[in-house]
Amino acid sequence: MIHRGGCHCGQVRFEAEGEIEAAVACNCSICSRKGALLWAVDAKKFHVFDAGPDMGAYAFGKRTLRHRFCRNCGIATHSEGDGFVAINIRCIDGLDPAKIDAVEFDGRSV
C-alpha cells in the first residue's frame, strides 16, 4: 500500500510503501517533545517530493538520525537513519493514529 502525507502547510510532501502494523512511541528528548508516533520503512520505499529549501534537518547526540521538518510550518514529518526512514504517522493523510498499536521504545537509553 502507498501512504502519502506531509507537513501542515503542504510544502513538504512524501509517500511511503508498506503496511503499518504498529508505530513506535519513543521517549527520547526530541520524540517525546514533538509527540511523534513512528513507522519505519526501508529508505528505498520512501520518497520526498520537491520540498526544496523548505525542508530542514536537525541532528543531535550521536547524530545517527536526521530529523526532518518543514521550515515554513515547523511540522516534523520524518527522520532519516542508515537505510531507513522513521515516518511520523501523525503526518500521513487520512490515517487515524488512535487505530494503530503503539510500542514503547526507550530512546533515552540509546
UniProtKB/TrEMBL annotation:
Record keyword Transferase present: no
Keyword entries, A-Z: Metal-binding, Zinc
Pfam families, sorted: GFA (PF04828)
Source taxon at top rank: Bacteria
PROSITE patterns per record: CENP_V_GFA
The CENP-V/GFA domain, residue ranges: 3-106
Annotated InterPro entries: CENP-V-like, CENP-V/GFA, Mss4-like_sf
Molecular function via GO: carbon-sulfur lyase activity; metal ion binding
The UniProt record lists the keyword Zinc: yes
Similarity field: Belongs to the Gfa family.
Protein name: GFA family protein
Species name: Luteimonas gilva
Source organism phylogeny: Bacteria, Pseudomonadati, Pseudomonadota, Gammaproteobacteria, Lysobacterales
